[in-house]
Amino acid sequence: MTEIIDSVVVGAGVIGLAIARQLAVLGHEVFVLDREMDFGLHTSSRNSEVIHAGLYYPPGSLKAALCVRGKALLYDYCRRRGVPHRQLGKIIFATRPSDEAVLDAIEANGRGAGVEDLRRLGRAEVGALEPALDCQAALLSPSTGIVDSRALMTSFLEEISAAGGSFVGRSEVTHLSRQPGGWGLHLGGEAEPMAVARNVINAAGLHARTLADHTEGLDARFRPRVRYARGVYFTYSGKVPFSHLIYPVPVPGGLGTHLTLDLAGGARFGPDVEWIEDVDYSIDPGRKPAFLAAARAFWPDIDPDRLSPGYAGVRPKLSGPGEPQADFAVMGPAEHGLEGLVNLFGIESPGLTSALALAEDVVLRLEASPRSEGVRLV
């Protein structure tokens, strides 16, 4: 007889682990399965580790609501659990008078989404905070910060384990079949399910669409197309004269090449945006001149010899080049009509910031599933 278990989360990135933690502390028997040997090896560990304030996402969107809620939850969680983080603040700068209208729009959008601590800065105020930054005007976001993403995921996993849950690596779920009592979990292309789970959460990130395509009974309307956008980071080996995160006004397709800091005091520039067909983390060293030019726009004295290729990440995006930025897509029984199943698509930035809020959202969606009796938020 095939074993029936309570809840399985497919994908051990920061989102999958946050969801598994939420279910585990609510008393669920939880298994987190991932195709890799370790957790968090893809999008969750290949980003800028920024805790976003919620400035750029349309009010009323999932991204806006979950970012603002998730930011508060994340700061509180990091304080309680001792996860390394720092609330540095972010400065979005404008170098031309014409860009000040963009700052106006960002400020209005952020306030509409519930970000209430924004502060407009003139040239002299910017100079007092960041003497090396020469700009026309700026917007200060005090609640933006950074977090050690690996430590955060480790903390989630510790709580999962303490509640009796487990992470199982090298366990690629290739197919979900409908079985009496729940969802059959087929690993590695096997015809017979390894187990049956009452609840399955597809948090497979870059591969979430692939699993959805192999989920029995899931209509094509609930399997959105996912596109890959690679973002490259160049790291700086010396000390930088900045104490805040430094962002230009946004450019079409992204936030522009910005400067972020890590908890060890290191600095990196990026990411850029490059549309690719398959997951590929390679970096072309020939992109250095573009990064150098972007950095010199606000730091003319940068030493080019200290700038070198760092790492790359790939975002699973639901919108393509030239299209409006798409929202997160979280689909549960109320959307697709399949009990005990939640799919998450297009969980890119601000996914890290939103992780704990997304976990709450997923549990609420499972409440609509009769098989999930007993799932309640705390």
Describe this structure in words.
- The chain has 378 residues and is an alpha+beta fold.
- The chain folds into two domains: 4-47 and 150-225 and 325-372, FAD/NAD(P)-binding domain (3-Layer(bba) Sandwich); 88-143 and 226-317, D-Amino Acid Oxidase, subunit A, domain 2 (D-Amino Acid Oxidase, Chain A, domain 2), CATH 3.30.9.
- It is built from nine helices and 20 strands.
- It has helices at 14-25, 62-81, 100-112, 123-129, 149-162, 208-213, 288-296, 333-336, 351-366, and strands at residues 4-10, 30-33, 50-51, 85-86, 90-94, 119-122, 137-141, 145-147, 166-168, 173-179, 182-187, 195-202, 227-236, 245-248, 258-261, 267-270, 274-276, 307-317, 329-331, 341-345.
- Strands 1, 2, 9, 10, 11, 12, 19 and 20 form an eight-stranded mixed beta sheet that branches. Strands 13, 15, 16, 17 and 18 form a five-stranded antiparallel beta sheet that branches. It has a four-stranded mixed beta sheet with strand order 6-7-5-14.
- α1 links the parallel β1 (4-10) and β2.
- Mean pLDDT is 94; it is low at 372-378.
